[in-house]
Amino acid sequence: MPGLVIEHLSKTLGGRLVVEDLSLRVEPGELVCLLGPSGCGKTTTLRMIGGFIPPDGGSISIDGVDVSGVPPERRPTAMVFQSYALWPHMSVFKNVAYGLKLRRLPKPEIERRVEAMLALVNLSDKGARRPAQLSGGEQQRVALARALVLEPSLLLLDEPLSNLDAKLRVGVREEIREIQQRLGIATVFVTHDQDEALAISDRVAVMSGGRIEQFDEPAALYRRPATTFVAGFIGAMSMFEGAVGSDGVRLGQAVQVPFAAPIPVAAAMGGGAAEGWTIGVRPEDVLVKPARPGGRSRATARVLKQIPHGHYRELVLGLDGLEDTRLRAFVAADAPLGDHLEVSIARALLYHEGRLAHEVCGQDRVRVDARAAVATP
Length: 377
Ligand SMILES: Nc1ncnc2c1ncn2[C@@H]1O[C@H](COP(=O)(O)OP(=O)(O)O)[C@@H](O)[C@H]1O
Ligand SMILES: [Mg+2]
Description:
This protein has nine helices and 21 strands. The strands form four sheets. Strands 6-7-8-3-9-10 form a six-stranded mixed beta sheet, sandwiched between helices. The protein is an alpha+beta fold. The protein starts with a strand and ends in a 16-residue tail after the last strand. It has two domains: 4-228, P-loop containing nucleotide triphosphate hydrolases (Rossmann fold, 3-Layer(aba) Sandwich), CATH 3.40.50; 236-361, CATH 2.40.50.140. Residues 13-14, 18, 36, 38-44 line the site of adenosine-5'-diphosphate.
């Protein structure tokens, strides 16, 4: 079985179960992110894959070989750490060559492989420098080259970009993704940054409390978060307790918010119960227009806050008749809307006991590009 196969992995640290019955598969050439809040067990999982800490239970195999009991240096893995962990007294070239020297490769081969790797990470002209003479992004590329020069079959990266400023982080993550794809190397990338995970992954494993909540492609993760935890963690999602009917959802006890277009709810739900749902609504699925004075629209809301995001803006709405509601909506940056709005929704996700049960939306995608189709008065 090629690639990485993890089955029922567990680890207790300091008397606490920090990785719990974790199973995961990474195909050859695939980049998988472990994504989750600080303390959810990402680093512990990665260190078990690399062989730095032994699991209490479960198995890890790489390219069909069970690696239990195999020390890190004999595993077909290479790790890039958050801190880079470069040797400060060695040149860039020697840093990258280090692992090959330990393997006692002939000198000409070491030179050839190091030079090829420095070219790959765009540092051919920096081989003689010390790490301290490089920028943060360049240091990170040295760390990447040092890992890749060993020609591992699995690359492990633990928050490799967290020491870089925001702008550089985006550039370096794109470089890492490009190199990873060019080499076709299976990669496990740990991050707590959802943007980063969604941008570079083939698939993302969202973790919470030592467990995987959902393992899916980025688009699916965003569109259909499998649990309320994932729904809250990935992107913005407004959540309410309520009920659903053919013409809209009822939030709380009283406020009915209509669907923007007819939705065959009964069919979508197979005649399931109308009551007792946790209802999730993405901001791009909320449509707004100015409330008509004296109009009889069923759902109106006050604009409580406006957050500019460049070409669009985010509204935080409080629904009339439902204290404490916070419904988020995206609208065009310059849409002249006023502060009392009529609200409808194009799509809702229904959760029961924390798990996604139904996606309620029109037969056709009601709105293909939410931001382009923002309702204007
Ligand atoms: N050596 C250790 N001893 C005790 N607890 C630990 C140790 N290492 C990590 N932990 C705990 O295990 C949990 C998971 O840690 P970690 O895998 O580093 O999380 P993450 O990388 O997702 O932030 C945390 O609650 C952390 O405090
Ligand atoms: Mg960590």
